[in-house]
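[audit] Reproducing an earlier prediction to check determinism. Same input, same settings, fresh worker. If the tokens differ from the archived copy the diff job will pick it up downstream; this log only records the rerun itself.
[audit] input (441 residues):
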Amino acid sequence: MRPRHIVLFIACCFVLLGAIVIVGDWNRALLGDLRCPHVLGVFSSQDSVFSDQYSEEKTMVPLELADSTSLTEEIKEKPEPQPAPQVVETVGALDYFIAGLRESGEKQVRVVHYGDSQIEEDRITSTLRSYLQSEYGGLGPGLLPLVQTIPTRTVVQYLLVDGQRITAREGPKRWLVYGPKNQQRDSSSLYGVMGQVAVLDSLCDSVTMHIEPYGKLTSANYFSQLRVWATKDILVNGSRQHKGALRDTLTRVNIDISGTGEVYGVSLESAMGVIVDNIPMRGGSGNVFTKMNRKQLTEFYEETNTRLIILQFGGNVMPWANTEERVRGYASSMRRQIRYLKDCAPNASILFIGPSDMLTVVDGEKMSYPTIAYMDQQLARISAAEGIAYWSLFKAMGGEGSMQVWQEKGLASSDGVHFYRSGANRAGELLWNWLKRKIDD
């Protein structure tokens, strides 16, 4: 076929597709689940710029929507029939956490915050950490991966080899329990508490992890103790000791990691007070904890005196969970994850944070996902049934349609899903205000 024929063919395809978009029935199924798009949806813009250490206030990390096929594989439980008409919050769900706070002047108390991309960059978590450390003491950002692919708003972190800075791609091989299957291990469930592991081998057997403050100094930028979670053949600053006090309270440090083995996380912290870990799982729906090694999780939660585990998931399944049955199926699958974590951390409270309000386009108009309120209700119901705490970010924002209000106030991105940093700060404040009332009751 001659070049001009190819160009003519492509032009005809564009004309045909354009005609379908303009004159079509916007939400009518054309073939199976394939639907004709609305012209406004075709030309609508979404933020898709990855933020870096020096990004503007309104730079956002896009939400990676969960793959419906993998979700179907993960959700094994049969959806429960009808929800209880009234969700009653479990009394005493935060007792372990509140009791731990009373000991924060004498020992370390840990909070582990898992979530999807809504908490990337240490968003929401950093605000909660700031309030907790201000009230109950504690220093440091907590756990950091050896290889940081998503910069945070708390610290600047990168790796050096022979004194030269390298990129994340040039660093040690990483395996993730979440995300694409080609990034997951074939058989081993050893991912550590962060759900990711960096492997040092003969090709890259010595790296230096550099940490320095980002932005205005807070308690999270000071630390007096270093702890590395790794296999026994890994050397930390030339020593097999993976935990120790630093010579002084620091805000920046170089940590030499060498040997052959696996590194599950590096924690910058203090010996006493509250330590809050930010563990984002990009594109995750939360159905991964049962794939993580029970022994590793149990040992971490026990050794660090973890008193609160926060799970913030649900947003990534909304495009897929478009029926009440699918919502109940997802909630049932999360119930299994909650039970697993309760077994791994019997002395910790668990708090589930449901998804924020989220916008989609239906018939050319922006609106909340039709099942978002039902998702919030179902996650609250299974939390109450399992005796854990639940905080509705959806209701705290203002309920259905509130994401548009947050956008108008400059708190949320035009993608209708993510908060700007100012919005994440506001969400963190709302979480802290709710949590503080529970602590003071």
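[audit] rerun output stored. Observation attached for the diff report: The radius of gyration is 23 Å.
[audit] end
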